[in-house]
């Protein structure tokens, strides 16, 4: 339908004083944007259009194949500027044809039913869909709703209550991070997951379970939610700090058999790649390794204030996950022993090289050497440690890196163990330590290097490593090469067995000489030490001779003064 003042060069419904029903289901009035929606029609369909002046004040209705669709534009002709109205059709292609029926034949829709049909509710027309925002605009809005803390969702919740459109967009962000602090909250969440038709469970990416005081219910989370949270990537298990008596109460409150079945329960977290443990206590170190190894694709383990009962470890009970590559330890007195989560995997798979699988069994002497270092108690433990495990396909090597940091999060010491498979007698393949690199901020003074570096020589003397190329100790402390040579000479005497085997290298890193920074490392060799020592000895002798000469001259002057002889 179009008025007499309409522009016929445009499609009907998209211009002023026109009402159109398009084949794509869009019904519009003087606007190229859709006002309402109706069913789509195709070639061969019969479309009817009419106005009701007496009943609805000039409202326009449409029919499709004899079915009344509904009143689309109410009081259309009364609010129009044109005086006359004409049936109008817009065709998109020159070959398109239509056949019009102005009453010369019976209409497909019985006009006698118009009074009844116009008074009842119809399925059509439908209102237009709300306009959708681009992903960039949505990310900006979401960034403004939660600018600082993902757990603070007050503004995001308020925005989700505006309409269904925003509720649907914000639902994944509302449930992306969940923190449970009681069993009641766990029950509510479990019920919500059951009633949300998997939408809520699919949105959960991070889950935190915080047990208060002497509560014991974290295992129930694994029982009820682990199998349903398929996209869960980060799992945090936290508890309030407890003393030894508190942990004994926890042990008594734990149902019988749960402790032994925990690995089986946690194996249901099939997508978790990061596991965080805070204020947890285990019956043994083996129990910790069994729980961690239960996660099929775990890559990162973060531990803060983790303890376990001191008891001898049975190597057969130690486990390690296949994909574990990073361990971050904070405020743990036994952080070095956490490295056994990596080396416990060795010797459990065939000998074929595969960077993602476990490596061959560790050689006996290498095992004694490495475990002797890992099991040594620190007299001054560091606040934070980070352990990294990586494999290199180029040279078939495994890297075990330990970074120790002080209270200011500054790297104080870094250990890098490099292991490679080597063939020993009878062509048996074993994993052997081939290189050890130690970087530290302290100087080479034996009193400042810590307890483990002097222990290297003792362990090497007890179990020599045939495939160890060298042990490199690098100091980042600023010092002149002369002072460094004196200190390295003392350190060599403390590491006499490594030095005698020719496996000790001492280097300076990032030193400055005469105001110019030197790139790379500068090795302090025995020749340099001997040269510096000899030069210092010569300078000391010259200094002593000068002192003796000055003393003899002063003695001669004093004697002349006593005898009254004039001074020349």
Automatic annotation (TrEMBL):
<dbReference type="GO" id="GO:0051603">
    <property type="term" value="P:proteolysis involved in protein catabolic process"/>
</dbReference>
<dbReference type="InterPro" id="IPR045129">
    <property type="entry name" value="RNF123/RKP/RSPRY1"/>
</dbReference>
<dbReference type="InterPro" id="IPR044736">
    <property type="entry name" value="Gid1/RanBPM/SPLA_SPRY"/>
</dbReference>
<dbReference type="InterPro" id="IPR001870">
    <property type="entry name" value="B30.2/SPRY"/>
</dbReference>
<dbReference type="GO" id="GO:0005737">
    <property type="term" value="C:cytoplasm"/>
</dbReference>
<dbReference type="InterPro" id="IPR013320">
    <property type="entry name" value="ConA-like_dom_sf"/>
</dbReference>
<dbReference type="GO" id="GO:0008270">
    <property type="term" value="F:zinc ion binding"/>
</dbReference>
<feature type="domain" description="B30.2/SPRY">
    <location>
        <begin position="1"/>
        <end position="107"/>
    </location>
</feature>
<keyword id="KW-0863">Zinc-finger</keyword>
<keyword id="KW-0479">Metal-binding</keyword>
<keyword id="KW-0862">Zinc</keyword>
<dbReference type="InterPro" id="IPR003877">
    <property type="entry name" value="SPRY_dom"/>
</dbReference>
<protein>
    <recommendedName>
        <fullName>B30.2/SPRY domain-containing protein</fullName>
    </recommendedName>
</protein>
<dbReference type="GO" id="GO:0004842">
    <property type="term" value="F:ubiquitin-protein transferase activity"/>
</dbReference>
<dbReference type="InterPro" id="IPR043136">
    <property type="entry name" value="B30.2/SPRY_sf"/>
</dbReference>
<dbReference type="Pfam" id="PF00622">
    <property type="entry name" value="SPRY"/>
</dbReference>
């Amino acid at each position: 339908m179009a008025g007499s003042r309409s522009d016929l060069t445009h499609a009907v419904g998209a211009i002023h004083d026109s009402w159109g029903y398009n084949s794509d289901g869009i019904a519009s009035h003087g606007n190229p944007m859709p006002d309402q929606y109706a069913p789509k029609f195709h070639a061969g369909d019969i479309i009817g259009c009419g106005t009701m002046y007496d009943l609805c004040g000039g409202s326009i209705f449409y029919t499709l194949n004899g079915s009344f669709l509904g009143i689309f534009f109410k009081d259309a002709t009364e609010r129009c500027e044109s005086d006359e109205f004409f049936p109008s059709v817009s065709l998109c292609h020159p070959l398109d044809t239509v056949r019009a029926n102005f009453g010369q034949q019976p209409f497909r829709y019985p006009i006698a039913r118009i009074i009844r049909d116009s008074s009842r509710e119809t399925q059509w027309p439908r209102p237009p869909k709300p306009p959708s925002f681009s992903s960039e605009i949505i990310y900006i809005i979401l960034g403004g709703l939660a600018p600082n803390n993902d757990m603070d969702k007050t503004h995001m919740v308020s925005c989700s209550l505006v309409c269904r459109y925003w509720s649907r967009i914000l639902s994944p962000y509302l449930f992306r991070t969940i923190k449970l602090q009681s069993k009641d909250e766990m029950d509510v969440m479990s019920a919500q997951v059951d009633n949300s038709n998997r939408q809520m469970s699919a949105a959960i990416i991070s889950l935190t379970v915080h047990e208060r005081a002497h509560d014991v219910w974290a295992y129930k989370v694994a029982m009820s939610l682990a199998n349903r949270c398929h996209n869960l990537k980060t799992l945090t298990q936290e508890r309030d700090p407890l003393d030894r008596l508190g942990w004994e109460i926890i042990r008594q409150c734990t149902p019988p058999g749960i402790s032994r079945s925990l690995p089986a329960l946690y194996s249901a977290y099939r997508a978790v790649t990061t596991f965080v443990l805070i204020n947890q206590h285990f019956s043994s170190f083996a129990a910790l390794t069994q729980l961690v190894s239960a996660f099929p694709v775990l890559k990162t383990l973060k531990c803060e204030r983790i303890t376990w009962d001191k008891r001898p470890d049975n190597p057969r009970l130690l486990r390690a996950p296949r994909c574990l590559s990073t361990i971050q330890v904070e405020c743990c007195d036994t952080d070095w022993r956490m490295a056994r989560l990596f080396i416990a995997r060795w010797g459990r798979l065939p000998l074929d090289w595969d960077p993602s699988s476990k490596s061959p069994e560790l050689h006996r002497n290498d095992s004694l050497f490495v475990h002797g270092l890992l099991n040594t108690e620190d007299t001054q433990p560091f606040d934070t440690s980070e352990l990294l495990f990586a494999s290199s396909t180029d040279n078939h090597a495994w890297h075990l890196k330990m970074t120790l940091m002080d209270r200011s999060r500054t790297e104080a010491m870094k250990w890098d163990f490099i292991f490679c498979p080597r063939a020993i007698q009878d062509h048996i393949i074993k994993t052997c330590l081939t290189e050890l690199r130690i970087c530290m901020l302290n100087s080479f003074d034996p009193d400042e290097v810590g307890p483990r570096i002097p222990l290297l020589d003792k362990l090497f003397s007890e179990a020599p490593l045939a495939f160890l190329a060298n042990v490199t100790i690098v100091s980042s402390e600023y010092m002149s090469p002369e002072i460094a040579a004196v200190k390295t000479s003392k350190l060599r005497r403390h590491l006499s067995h490594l030095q005698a085997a020719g496996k000790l290298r001492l280097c300076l890193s990032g030193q400055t000489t005469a105001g110019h920074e030197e790139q790379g490392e500068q090795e302090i060799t025995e020749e340099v030490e001997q040269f510096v020592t000899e030069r210092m000895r010569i300078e000391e002798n010259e200094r002593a001779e000068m002192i003796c000469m000055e003393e003899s001259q002063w003695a001669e002057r004093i004697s002349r003064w006593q005898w009254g002889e004039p001074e020349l």
